[in-house]
Amino acid sequence: MKGQIKVSSDSRISEIDPRLYGSFIEHLGRAVYEGIYQPGNPNADENGYRQDVLAAVRKLNVPIVRYPGGNFVSGYNWEDSVGPKETRPKRLDLAWRSLETNEFGLHEFVKWAEMANSEVNMAVNLGTRGVDAARNVVEYCNFPSGTYWSDLRRKNGAEKPFGIKTWCLGNEMDGPWQIGAKTAQEYGRLANEAAKAMKWVDDSIELVACGSSSMENPTFGSWEETVLDETYDNIDYLSLHRYYGNQENDLQNYLAKSLDLDEFISSVVAICDAVKARKHSKKTINLSMDEWNVWYHSNNQDKEIKPWQVAPPLLEDIYNFEDALLVGCLLITLLKHSDRVKIACLAQLVNVIAPIMTNDQGVWLQSIFYPFMQVSQYGRGVALNTVTKSESYKAKDFDEVPYLESIATLDEEHREISIFAVNRSSKETMDLDFVADGFSNLKLLGATQFCGYDIKATNEDAKMDLQELNEISVDGSVQAKLQPLSWNVIRLGY
Ligand code: AHR
Fold this sequence. Notes:
Elements: E1 2-8, E2 12-15, E3 22-24, H1 51-60, E4 64-67, E5 91-93, E6 98-100, H2 106-115, E7 119-124, H3 131-142, H4 148-155, E8 166-169, H5 184-201, E9 206-209, H6 222-231, E10 237-244, H7 251-255, H8 257-278, E11 286-294, H9 299-302, E12 309-310, H10 321-336, E13 341-346, E14 356-358, E15 363-365, H11 369-378, E16 382-384, E17 387-390, E18 392-393, E19 401-402, E20 404-411, E21 416-423, E22 430-437, E23 443-450, E24 467-468, E25 472-475, E26 477-482, E27 486-493
Parallel strand pairs: 1-22, 3-4, 3-13, 4-7, 6-12, 7-8, 8-9, 9-10, 10-11, 11-13
Antiparallel strand pairs: 1-17, 2-16, 5-6, 14-15, 16-20, 18-19, 20-21, 21-27, 22-26, 23-24, 23-27, 25-26
Helix pairs in contact: 3-4, 3-5, 5-6, 6-8, 8-10, 10-11
């Protein structure tokens, strides 16, 4: 089979916001406790931070991490998580039917994020709480000194403000499962008032309003419109959440699900722009895809978990090779929309639907770790308009699925082009021809492939790794052989 990719130096989608490679740590299952924090573990430092986890997180180059939820945030009192640990209250977490000790809180997370070379994307509770708690937490985190909340932060050991720039106005407020779920009108009004007060405390922050938690929610579309109507002038981004699974065990349909993500993003962009036009506004609302991933493997086992435990092993999906291929396709799709998707958070980062897993001995890396790591590392700079040609196939839910899924990015500072490509064919090798107009003296910097594994193979035994892509030649254009069911990264200098 043949595949072709054409790019041109002057045809660009957008600068890529580094926050496109964000992730997420929620107080859920073993993400925090036994994940990033485990005092007494041989791999933890004197403050309980797991150094093996930090090393793996740093490999992913995650520039921003959303915290503390998720569904959890809608019942959270942020004040419980600051001050001396001995006085912090133990609470019921109704979202995950767990016990929250608050031993790990705001200061601990800010410190962790700094060690992970990451910014914090902080969510406020608009489920059980409102404007007051939201403006207070901004004051606590970002106001220099001389007020009740900023001085309390200083008293609790942080002289300098945290300077948190990105804030989420609640989480999935359209979902009946959410503590304090709201109608679009109710949420829109509350989010707008919270946004005003938060920006009055610190006008340098950026705010994300909740879009729909899924395209299948009956209110999808009208929710976005109403929320934008209410909040347009005071917010910066609208959120999208999307999880995929292969419940029907149909590989070709599963690998096509990135086309669904493409449609979801385009639909939300269309709604944002329709509201913009109706409001005669000059302001453009961009998107924060602040939860995305594969999530379905652990659904049944989670039903067996007893409630009211501290850090029960919830949402511990064990990913296989086909999941890694889909995650690669989803990353490519996000890059294709990088003109409007400015923030994205792989949900989540450690133990909970995560690329990094821990046990008491150490960490192990899931299959999805590899495509995420590579795109986060090399997909920086500018996303290029990438014109691809390949045969396509019909799948159960998609009429026309190209076998080749691909995008190229341009890092002008380092004079590098990176090509990310998935061959969706389970049978045929693809002869790829890559042509780059406007670039001279192309030279190969490196090429890897991730392929050859059983589609259901998982990586607990650490047998998976990136391999050299040897069947490649660079001579004005690039010719490469993409193996069946493969994730490929080709890096060129110019
Ligand atoms: O990421 C797991 C959960 O998925 C989050 O808590 C929630 O926002 C979503 O439903």
